[in-house]
Write a structure and sequence with these properties.
The complex is a heterodimer of chains A (374) and B (226). Chain A is an alpha+beta fold and 374 residues long. Helix content of chain A is 51%, strand content 13%. Chain A is built from 9 helices and 9 strands. In chain A, strand 5 (117-118) and strand 6 (127-129) form a beta hairpin. The chains are: A alpha+beta (374), B mainly alpha (226). The A-B interface holds A 210, 259-260, 263, 266-267, 270, 273-274, 277-279, 282-283, 286-287, 289-291, 293-295, 297-298, 301, 311 and B 149, 152-153, 156-157, 159-162, 166, 169-170, 173-174, 176-178, 200-201, 204, 208, 211-212, 215, 219, 222-223, 225-226.
């Protein structure tokens, strides 16, 4: 018992230190996802025939399939546009005609593309551009289409050759234009990870409770669910802060990652509501364990949703595995420490919450015994 | 499996005699479709809302809520009449009980689905672009998934104090992406271009049906204990 308490204190210190380190690294160490074009003006002022190099962190992919594959670099047109206003973008995209009233479009013939991810299935020249990848494009300005509104916030790549910009099979990419907002990623992604971990612990705790009928597993299961909801809330609220800067909107109901995570949050709120609605402790533990197992189905849905495209469309950046190439070593280190910090924080909170639950149960037991004596 | 069929037959026989649930669900689906008719009345006459879009969404809202009503009553009735104990005392596997309840609820829910499809066609003078059969089969598929997870959640919520309120709170988030979203998309596609365009959605609904069936079959035992 004493050892458990000491372990809890040590873990608390470790996680607080790690969180502080994460804050420090995120602010001072992790690089900003730079676009190598300083400003839109630089592109605007480039003459026809000038060489331009544009690089950046892909923040959003607007194409029907969710991911876009560049098949043939020679036929790619690079253009610049206002990606902030998603509604307008769709309108222009649907009519397959970029309205120059709203769009500042200046195509560059591209002769080299690097970064992104090589498509595993596509042709050898194929690059699969996914949100979160680093993209670098070099080319010669071939023509200029200048529209009155020059609010340039993004870039697009298109498979059509020639000067007329229409959206072909490749689709368009917005390159990250609000680099500072990306810092929130070091807290957003680890808290999402911690929430998936918590709900995983709830699943295991629930299953073990049903198997052994030991109350301690029930305490672990619901404590973990409570903490998971806290982390899920952090993830759901930090996401929109970034999205507003990068996508121009707080929330996109057509993005499966966002909506499935919201549903995940609702399901576990339901889990706690269910517990609150049952008075009898053993029924509470038994019935909520079944719901705790059933609820877990929403975790893989949320976790994998940005990857099951095109059935489920998503512009949410992919982080784990597939786009590790998109992160610089410094950013990778910061994310790694942040994930460790949130994991330790989760373990600390879980131990404390379980201790509280134990104390509550003990109190109930004592109350019951006093009642019997009287 | 024989026990499950016996339980389902018993439920359906009770239902055919009392017609309690069926009449409630009949009126319920009639009123939901009517509510949509009134709510969209000016939009429909002005032609500003696509009937295919509206049909797919309205039908699935109707199916889901009618099913929630049906699944809730299927357990609440047993609890009220104290016949749940009798069922639990029966010398059969609890998983059979689950299957039996799923079967009997599915029959009633599917019947109400058919009624809703008819009402919608009547009130909106809509012929489902000649794809009635596709709409009906998708209704059946979606209802199977819905009832498989709903029966388990209904059995969970019957243990609680706030029974009626809790079932939708616990169930709707779970069916949002497993049933409602793919079913609405598939139904819409079916009316626009036949059922062939929705293989992915159909696979997804069927996969969720399999997952829910396994979870329900394995855990139902624990829900109805004590």
């Amino acid at each position: 018992m004493m050892n458990m308490k000491r372990l809890g204190t040590i873990l608390l210190v470790v996680s607080v230190v790690l969180i502080l380190v994460t804050v420090y690294l995120a602010i001072f160490f992790a690089p900003l996802p730079q676009t190598s074009v300083e400003s839109a003006d630089q592109i605007m002022s480039a003459e026809v025939g000038a060489r331009l190099h544009v690089a950046g962190f892909v923040s959003v992919v607007y194409s029907r399939g969710g991911n876009a594959v560049l098949d043939s670099p020679e036929h790619v047109v690079f253009s610049i546009a206002d990606f902030r206003d998603y509604g307008r973008f769709l309108q222009a995209n649907n009519s397959n005609n970029l309205d120059q009233q709203w769009w500042t479009v200046r195509p560059i013939d591209v002769d080299s593309i690097s970064g992104g991810l090589r498509s595993s299935t596509g042709p050898s020249v194929g690059y699969k551009i996914i949100p979160g990848a680093n993209l670098s494009v070099e080319g010669v300005v071939s023509s200029q289409h200048i529209a009155p509104n020059s609010n340039v916030t993004g870039f697009s790549l298109d498979s059509n050759s020639g000067n007329d910009i229409t959206f072909g099979p490749v689709g368009a990419f917005g390159i990250m234009t609000a680099p500072v907002a990306q810092k929130i990623f070091y807290f957003h992604m680890p808290s999402a990870w911690a929430c998936y971990l918590s709900f995983g612990v709830t699943l295991v705790g629930s299953a073990l409770f049903l198997k052994t009928r030991d109350q301690k597993y029930d305490r672990v299961a619901f404590s973990s669910a409570e903490i998971g909801i806290v982390f899920a809330t952090i993830a759901i609220t930090t996401g929109p802060v970034w999205a507003k800067q990068e996508w121009g909107v707080y929330w996109r109901w057509d993005d499966m990652k966002l909506v499935t995570t919201f549903v995940l949050w609702l399901v576990y709120i339901g889990y706690l509501t269910l517990r609150a609605a049952i008075a009898e402790p053993s029924t509470k533990a038994r019935v909520s364990a079944v719901y705790g197992i059933l609820s877990f189905i929403t975790v893989p849905m949320s976790l994998l949703s940005s990857r099951i495209a095109p059935l489920l469309q998503s512009s949410h950046p992919q982080v784990i595995a597939s786009s590790s190439g998109g992160l610089s070593p410094q950013a990778g280190l910061t994310v790694g420490i942040a994930v460790a910090a949130f994991t330790f924080l989760f373990i600390t909170m879980l131990i404390k919450r379980v201790e509280i639950a134990e104390a509550e149960d003990e109190l109930e037991e004592l109350k019951r015994r006093i009642g019997e004596e009287e | 499996m024989r026990a499950a069929l016996t339980i389902a037959a018993k439920d359906l026989r009770v239902e055919l005699r009392s017609k309690e649930m069926l009449s409630a669900m009949f009126l319920f689906s009639l009123l939901i479709v009517l509510a949509f008719r009134f709510a969209f009345s000016s939009a429909v006459s002005a032609g500003t809302v696509g009937l295919t879009e509206l049909a797919a969404s309205a039908l699935w809202i109707c199916f889901s809520f009618a099913a929630i009503l049906g699944m809730y009553t299927s357990f609440a009735k047993e609890k009220d009449r104290e016949t749940l104990e009798g069922l639990m005392l029966a010398p059969v596997d609890r998983s059979e009980l689950y299957l039996g309840k799923v079967l009997s609820t599915l029959v009633t829910v599917f019947f109400v689905d058919l009624l809703s499809i008819t009402f919608f066609g009547l009130f909106f003078s809509f012929d489902y672009s000649g794809q009635v059969l596709a709409v009906v089969s998708l209704a059946l598929l979606g209802s199977v998934t819905l009832v498989l997870v709903g029966t388990l959640v209904a059995a969970i919520s019957v243990n609680t104090r706030a029974q009626e309120v809790l079932l939708p709170i616990l169930l709707i988030p779970l069916i949002a992406f497993s049933v409602i979203v793919p079913s609405v998309t598939a139904t819409k596609n079916a009316m626009a271009s036949g059922i062939g365009d929705s293989i992915q959605q159909i696979e997804s609904i069927a996969a969720f049906a399999a997952i829910f069936a396994v979870i329900g079959y394995l855990t139902f035992d624990f829900v109805l204990e004590g």
